[in-house]
Specification:
The protein is mostly loops. The chain has 12 helices and no strands. The longest helix has 18 residues. It is flat and about 195 Å long. The two termini are 135 Å apart. The relative contact order is 0.02.
Length: 825
């Protein structure tokens, strides 16, 4: 700040005295000031306490020092820059529009510099008189005021703005209420207004929005009238106010549907569109198919049934809007002229079933409009004379056909029967009584109906005379009565041509299942009965002709059983008939011998792969698990399965270590009980057995594989048969050595090659003798153990006090003679 005039009084007086002294010293005579500028003056104006800078530096001295008077020249800005002031003259003065300032606290130089009055540095903190309103200055004249697009308000500027910057103003909305016209500011120009996708309402913003934030809103459909105007907002254009979904029912296309807006149907409140009820709120005639033909609208749709398969409209002709169930076509007006089949054709609606009697009459002729059953059928609706079997064939219940025990009139030659009513003439209420002989003339053939009681007629009596009778009743009986008829067979013999009567016509003949022979019946049958027969295969030639009868078609001559071997599929099997294999007479097929009578190459698996034919079959073990053919590759004889030469696959070759996969004693031969004991895991058969032809071929014990095993486990008399050399009876008694009982063969015998036991190097196991092992046990004269050890009597040097070869005074190691275990002396 520039010091005030009062504060600088002592400065001025001091400066003046200083100036006088300088004038005296310099010889300057006081007088009138010369007209010159301060810039051109040699006087140092700084020493006066009022340095000249900026615009002041270019002013002439007399601009301030009038009449050549220096003393008392004012130093404050206002004296020279205020309109009407003595010193103002042509100076820039404070304009009438200058903002009011607190002159008691600040001078011009608080804001302005000496260079120019422009771009002042104004402080709102100290430069404004207390209580001065912002608009006093910011009125658009003195300085920047409200812009043309400023929101309309009477509030003080500092209610929203601060003194640092106009931008970032924050109006205080706390006092706003429902009477506040929000849109006067929030109009999209002055302040943010309603977005383009805002729902089209005229309600004041504060009706839904809070003064703190636009969201969340408290919109609850009460802020404006919504009845009958849902679609104004719910058109899909004003999210999140959703519009009709794509699968909304097409009510617009329904004629007569008085729907003014969404709430015509949707009356369940504002939280959800559901439930919407169309038929409960809208009266409509027909047009059901517009919505219900498909499931596109999420409604009950046309079912996928034959009745509806061709329906494309007209639901209302059967259904009601109160419910789909119980649909019923109104048949009350239908009559005999109604063409029922136009609907009841099996597609549009139920038609005649496959079991309906074959008539062309209109449905109405027999059925009621209230139900298919009971019917009015009474045989008058169509012509039935001589047409009974058209319906009564058994294919059209309840029109029954011939019962299972109806007489077989069709098989009667000459029976002139055209239809059921040829015999059945008593009306339609019952088939009984039907009369055959009263209405049909027939010759013979009695047995067709009277042989059994199946047809409910007088039948062949159960007596010895008739026991074998299968026909030809008329040969003994007449049609006037059954009683008294009798054929005398007692005189019949081998010359009698039985077939002259027993021909299947005059009387029972050979049935279709009779074996195909031409021999006279008497050759096999008796005159007292057909069975038992005398058949013994001598009546006709049977050699190489077995299958003529034994085909299965002529029981009791049985044919091949279902599990007979499939010899027909065997290539090269020269089998001409059953007796190619079956040669043991006629009492039994067994034993039949195939391989003994038929030469065949390979093809074993055709019969022996499974147990289906009752033969030796493939065993259920790992060796045969993957085998489906080629038995003969291993089994070399048809006389016995045991003659086996197994061909090992390359993956099971010697050296693969796979032998024990099969040779486990179950799948194939395993280790016998007396096999040398293997105490080391991982030792495989082919470690020793190098041939797949036989176990005993090319066998070399692999001592390397068993190096961790004690020699004594194998080299015993029990395993001598396996080539394991056992310890001989004259082997030295190693138990006499120190801890000798625990010594193994390898302690001395270090070679596993054949004959390796003979190259032993004696290991005394650190025996010391005289109780710590005994030397004399082997080296005493008279012992006969194997080896070339030297033998002498214990007393060969001295007679008394000798206990062992090694002792004090004798041989080492306890004595001092010789080298331990190498030589005696």
């Amino acid at each position: 700040m520039t010091p005030s005039p009062h504060a600088h009084t002592w400065y001025r007086e001091a400066a003046f005295l200083l100036l006088l002294v300088m004038c005296v010293v310099l010889g300057v005579v006081p007088g009138r000031a010369e007209a010159q500028s301060a810039a051109n003056s040699k006087f140092d104006h700084f020493k006066t306490g009022f340095p000249l800078n900026g615009a002041h530096a270019t002013q002439r001295c007399e601009s301030c020092h009038t009449n050549g008077i220096f003393r008392g020249t004012p130093r404050d800005c206002q004296t020279c820059h205020t309109q009407g002031s003595r010193q103002a003259r042509s100076n820039v003065v404070i304009p009438p529009t200058h903002i009011p300032t607190n002159s008691s606290m600040q001078g011009c130089d608080s804001c302005h510099g000496t260079q120019s009055f422009s771009n002042p540095r104004f402080s709102h903190t100290t430069g404004i008189p207390p209580g001065t309103a912002c608009q006093t200055c910011h009125d658009g004249v003195r300085t920047q005021g409200k812009s043309g697009n400023h929101i309309a308000t009477r509030a003080s500027c500092d209610s929203c703005h601060n003194t640092r910057n106009w931008n970032g103003a924050r109006p205080d909305h706390r006092g706003f209420n429902s009477s506040t016209n929000c849109a006067s500011c929030h109009n999209g120009a002055t302040a943010s207004g309603k977005a383009a996708n805002h729902i089209p309402v005229t309600a004041n913003c504060i009706s839904c929005h809070s003064v703190n934030s636009w969201k969340p809103t408290n919109w609850n459909h009460t802020q404006t009238l919504v009845a009958g105007t849902c679609s104004t907002c719910h058109s899909g254009s004003f999210a999140p106010a959703n519009g009709r979904p794509f699968n909304h029912i097409p009510y617009q296309s329904l004629a007569g549907a008085a729907i003014t807006n969404c709430d015509t149907c949707h009356k369940g409140g504002y939280s959800s569109w559901n439930p919407g009820r169309f038929h409960a709120n809208v009266s409509i005639v027909g047009q059901c198919a517009s919505c219900h033909l498909t499931s596109a609208y999420g409604l009950t749709s046309k079912p996928n049934t034959a009745t509806h398969s061709t329906v494309t409209g007209g639901c209302e002709s059967c259904h009601k809007t109160s419910g789909w169930a119980g649909a019923k076509v109104n048949h009350s007006l239908f009559n005999a002229s109604t063409q029922c089949a136009s609907c009841h054709n099996g597609s549009a609606a139920t038609g005649k079933s496959g079991s309906h009697i074959p008539v062309t009459a209109n449905c109405y002729s027999c059925h009621n409009t209230t139900g298919w059953t009971p019917t009015k059928w009474n045989h008058t609706q169509v012509t039935v004379t001589n047409a009974c079997s058209t319906c009564h064939s058994g294919a059209f219940p309840p029109a029954d056909g011939r019962p299972s025990n109806h007489i077989p009139y069709q098989s009667l030659a000459g029976a002139a029967i055209t239809n059921c009513d040829t015999c059945h003439k008593s009306g339609y209420s019952s088939w009984n009584s039907g009369r055959f002989h009263a209405n049909v003339s027939i010759v013979g053939q009695c047995a067709s109906c009277h042989l059994t009681a199946v047809y409910g007629l007088t039948s062949k009596p159960a007596n010895a005379v008739h026991s074998t009778v299968t026909g030809g009743c008329e040969s003994c009986h007449n049609t006037s009565r059954w009683a008294g008829a009798k054929v005398n067979h007692s005189l019949f013999n081998s010359t009698t041509q039985c077939a002259s009567c027993h021909n299947g016509s005059a009387t029972t003949g050979k049935p279709g299942s009779h074996i195909p022979v031409t021999a006279n019946c008497y050759s096999c049958h008796n005159t007292t009965g057909w069975t038992p027969t005398k058949w013994n295969h001598t009546q006709v030639t049977v050699t190489n002709a077995c299958s003529t009868c034994h085909s299965g078609a002529f029981p009791p001559a049985d044919g091949r059983p279902s599990n007979h071997i499939a010899y027909q599929s065997l290539a090269g099997a020269a089998i001409t008939n059953c007796d190619t294999c079956h040669k043991s007479g006629y009492s039994s097929w067994s034993p039949g011998r195939f391989h003994a009578n038929v030469s065949i190459v390979g093809q074993c698996s055709t019969c022996h792969l499974s147990a289906a034919y009752g033969l030796t079959s493939k065993p259920n073990n790992a060796v045969h698990a993957g085998i489906s053919s080629g038995c003969e590759s291993c089994h070399k004889s048809t006389a016995s399965w045991s003659n086996v030469v197994y061909t090992h696959a390359p993956t099971n070759a010697v050296g693969t270590g796979t032998c024990d996969n099969c040779h486990n004693g179950s799948t194939a031969t395993g280790k016998p009980g007396n096999h040398i004991p293997l105490q080391v895991g991982g030792v495989k058969c082919d470690s020793c057995h190098k041939s797949q032809q036989a176990w005993a071929t090319s066998v070399t014990t692999n001592h390397t594989a068993m190096s961790a095993q004690s020699c004594k486990t194998c080299h015993t008399p029990a395993h001598a048969g396996w080539g394991a050399t056992a310890k001989p009876n004259n082997h030295i008694p190693e138990a006499q050595l120190l801890n000798g009982v625990n010594m193994d063969c390898k302690a001395c015998h270090t070679s596993t090659n054949p004959g390796g036991f003979g190259t032993a190097v004696m290991n005394h196991n650190n025996s010391m003798g005289s109780g710590s092992g005994w030397c004399y046990a082997c080296h005493n004269a008279g012992t006969a153990y194997q080896g070339s050890m030297e033998r002498k009597s214990l007393t060969h040097q001295q007679r008394t006090g000798v206990t062992d070869c090694s002792q004090s005074g004798c041989h080492r190691p306890l004595g001092n003679k010789g080298n331990t275990y190498r030589n005696w002396d």
